TrEMBL record:
Keywords noted in UniProt: Hydrolase
A single GO molecular function term of this UniProt record: hydrolase activity
Residues annotated as domain SMP-30/Gluconolactonase/LRE-like region: 13-247
Keyword RNA-binding assigned: no
Alphabetized InterPro entries for the sequence: 6-blade_b-propeller_TolB-like (IPR011042), SGL (IPR013658), SMP-30/CGR1_Lactonase (IPR051262)
Official protein name in the record: Sugar lactone lactonase YvrE
Lineage per the UniProt record: Bacteria, Bacillati, Actinomycetota, Actinomycetes, Pseudonocardiales
Annotated organism of origin: Saccharothrix ecbatanensis
Family: Belongs to the SMP-30/CGR1 family.
Length: 285
């Protein structure tokens, strides 16, 4: 029996959950092409914007304007009064679909990408080869988008850079899904990254980290992408909590005193793009 309570059903594939500046939960539904905002206290929900090329990561500029990753055309869009406009183009860096994103307090956005067509590879050969310890996935860069939209490479050769968070000491932690680890970087005043190290290796647990959320104590909640759980991990790899979800957990967010989990039976689009099997699940921390 799941530890969580199902808050919403009928999603296609929820991703990128974040607590917004107004306190609501914002999240993307990939195949509904919508960014939504949900008041956890009242249950009121609205569609914030529609992203034709599929929304993913979310964040906010210091003035409160929403940024959203447009996956298939590899862009970051900005929600202005007149609607969505292009904020940055990461086609020169991303080697496949753009994906999750973290926007810091200065308005700098770190944008990950698939690196290759993961869904096609799974459809052709299953997940088996990717679970072998000697399999080497393609590496891809992490993009850094400055508040004015200028784009540079933040880090090279990440193995499917996915969820990101800022630790209490200022380091950036990145989920490298296909390296089965969380990787940390020191962040300079200009947003550039250095001092790359493995913050937590998760391969022995079979955890391919997808979305993550950092708590106030510096622990990282991990959505494992292969299992119906959310895990809290500390630096070095110790798992300190485990929360069972009703189906596979692909993304997590901390909203006030609640852990919010985006779940689905699979990430394969041929299954979830039309069937409304996705859920939002919550757990009181």
């Amino acid at each position: 029996m799941a530890d969580t309570t199902v808050l919403r059903e009928g999603l296609r594939f929820g991703e990128g959950p974040r607590q917004g500046p107004d306190g609501r939960l914002f999240y993307s539904d990939f195949y509904a092409h919508e960014v939504r905002a949900l008041d956890l206290a009242t249950g009121d929900e609205e569609v914030v914007c529609t992203v034709p090329e599929q929304p993913s990561g979310l964040g906010w500029l210091p003035d409160g304007r929403l940024l959203v990753v447009s996956m298939r055309d590899r862009k970051v869009l900005r929600l202005d009064d007149g609607g969505l406009v292009e904020h940055a183009d990461v086609n020169g860096i991303a080697t496949f679909h753009a994906n999750d994103m973290l926007v810091d307090a200065q308005g700098r956005a770190y944008v990950g990408n698939f690196g290759f067509d993961l869904h096609a590879a799974i459809a052709a050969g299953g997940e088996g080869p990717m679970l072998e310890p000697d399999w080497v996935p393609p590496g891809t860069p992490l993009a850094l988008v400055q508040p004015d939209g200028a784009v540079t490479v933040a880090a090279d050769d990440l193995k499917f850079p996915n969820g990101m968070g800022l630790l209490p000491d200022g380091r950036l932690v990145v989920a490298e899904t296909l390296a089965f680890c969380l990787t940390s970087f020191a962040v300079a005043d200009d947003g550039t990254l250095s001092g790359r190290q493995v913050w937590a290796s998760l391969r022995d647990y079979g955890i391919a980290p997808d979305g993550i959320a950092v708590d106030a104590d510096g622990g990282v909640w991990v959505a494992p992408a292969l299992q119906p759980f959310a895990f809290r991990v500390e630096e070095g790899g110790e798992i300190t909590r485990k929360v069972e979800t009703s189906q596979i957990c692909f993304a997590v967010a901390i909203v006030d005193d609640k852990l919010v989990c985006c779940t689905a039976p699979t990430s394969q689009p041929e299954t979830v793009a039309t069937a409304q099997l996705g859920k939002l699940e919550v757990f009181a921390l």
